[in-house]
Write a structure and sequence with these properties.
The chain is mainly α. The protein has six helices and no strands.
Length: 191
């Protein structure tokens, strides 16, 4: 990207049309096409043909949550594109992002869309870590680090509170992998 490129100049306006078309095609168009293809083929999602063609969009999710990848794309769109439009650099922007992460955290916890329970735990840990990171950003923005014993202590607490939920989310996955490796080893020894 060109950092010398100034916004709202004639050169910027020349590129705005291309950006608008690209946004419509890739940000809105592709997820809409994927959702339409899944919707039209929802009765045949268990067939080998549909799995080979569209499986990358739904196989990691429970059968009744075949659309969840598009929910994830919407979350990413809202967090990366829409929240940035809410008063950039303000406390309101952080609160808006926190609201989005909390809503998606609740949606994930209620729906449990993943086939593998450990994937749900990892996703929950990641969502909690995102929310905690934003919470830490909010605390930093309102300058409460001194109340935590200074910036270094505050940063340490913040890093711990972000890493801890991810570790908790990953723990069941690690336990499952170790159990699977033990089962595989026992099977190999028994043959």
């Amino acid at each position: 990207s060109d950092l010398e490129f100034e916004c709202w100049t004639p050169r910027h306006y020349d590129h705005l049309g291309v950006a608008a078309v690209a946004t419509v095609l890739f940000v809105i168009g592709l997820p809409s096409i994927f959702l339409t293809m899944l919707w039209c083929n929802r009765a045949t999602l268990d067939t080998e043909r549909t799995r080979a063609w569209l499986g990358f969009l739904y196989v990691k999710y429970r059968r009744e949550k075949w659309f969840w990848e598009e929910i994830e794309l919407l979350r990413k769109l809202v967090l990366t594109s829409m929240v940035v439009l809410v008063r950039p650099g303000s406390i309101l922007q952080i609160v808006a992002a926190m609201s989005v992460t909390f809503i998606w955290l609740v949606l994930l916890a209620i729906n449990k869309p993943y086939r593998n329970q450990s994937d749900t735990y990892v996703a929950l840990g990641m969502y909690v870590a995102q929310h905690v990171a934003l919470w830490g950003g909010l605390l930093k923005r309102v300058q409460v680090a001194d109340e935590f014993g200074g910036t270094e202590v505050f940063n340490g607490i913040l890093v711990f509170t972000m890493v801890f939920p991810i570790g908790l989310g990953d723990a069941p996955a690690v336990v499952s992998m170790v159990a699977a490796a033990n089962n595989l080893g026992n099977t190999m020894v028994g043959t």
